[in-house]
Design a protein that fits this description.
7 strands; 7 helices; 14% strand; three-stranded antiparallel beta sheet; two-stranded antiparallel ribbon
Length: 265
């Protein structure tokens, strides 16, 4: 995705002849921790900072108990480290403190249109979204906080060069304040440089987040570098678990390989 929402490239499946289902636009899959961008952005808008300290410890909400990937707890941790290491318990605590309804409103403001149930697990990306809408939402952070409307056509000309169609309009305008964009960008860069997204590193130019849904059914890496935002999803159409594929593995490496060629690094 370009900074104004133009889709530069899209792959919706391995073989169009075998399946015309576009997994980039039609599939709704759980983004896992890639959804945490909305949680932490909401927290920053409510006055928290990357240096705010919260405790990674067991948590029970009703009959639900979130677990960390490593099944361990590290105690006090900054929000910066909790995001980069993708600590689930802290993300849920941040979401509850900021307000689930506000997290959902943030996701809507950045372009998520899929239904989002307001349960406590919303912080961990249990609501299905499309790859296109999630990548577009990251594009809002990439372009400094301006709303993104993804589109495939900028202009249409006939064989004589006459313009038959030209896309107009600048989109919804600013939807995130610049200061909050800068805080979120810093977290996304840390997640790549020292966190779960290290396989996506591009000489300090990359920012992004990994995501892995329950039982390895979905694995994501979504991020941006220079003037391009991109997202990668791995999974099975029927929802079968993969063989321990996480967002920091194949998706991050695929993203890094694509972006290296796309931005010329």
């Amino acid at each position: 995705l370009g900074m104004r929402g133009g889709v530069r490239a899209m792959v919706g499946g391995r073989a169009y002849k075998s399946s015309q289902f576009n997994r980039a636009t039609q599939a709704r899959r759980q983004p896992g921790s890639a959804f945490k961008v909305f949680v932490y952005l909401t927290a920053f808008e409510r006055g928290l900072t990357p240096d705010t300290v919260m405790r990674d410890s067991p948590l029970v909400l009703g009959d639900w108990k979130p677990q960390n990937y490593q099944r361990a707890f590290v105690g006090d941790v900054t929000l910066r480290d909790a995001f980069s290491k993708s600590i689930n318990t802290v993300a849920v605590k941040v979401s509850e403190r900021a307000g689930r309804h506000r997290v959902i409103k943030t996701a809507r403001r950045l372009g998520i249109t899929s239904p989002i149930p307001p349960g406590p697990s919303v912080a961990l990306g249990t609501a299905g979204v499309s790859l296109l809408e999630l990548t577009s939402a990251y594009g809002v952070i990439a372009n400094g906080g301006f709303g993104v409307i993804p589109h495939g056509i900028d202009q249409v000309r006939d064989r004589e060069g006459n313009v038959l169609y030209h896309r107009e309009g600048s989109g919804p305008g600013r939807v995130v304040e610049r200061g909050h964009v800068n805080l979120m960008t810093g977290l996304l860069r840390t997640a790549v440089e020292t966190g779960t997204g290290k396989a996506a590193r591009l000489q300090g130019r990359a920012a992004g987040k990994t995501g892995t849904s329950q039982d390895f059914r979905d694995a994501w890496f979504v991020g941006f570098a220079d003037d391009l935002a991109a997202g990668v999803w791995f999974g099975n159409d029927d929802g079968r678990p993969m063989k321990k594929v996480t967002g920091g593995g194949l998706p991050a490496r695929t993203w890094q390989k694509f972006m290296s060629g796309a931005i010329g690094s």
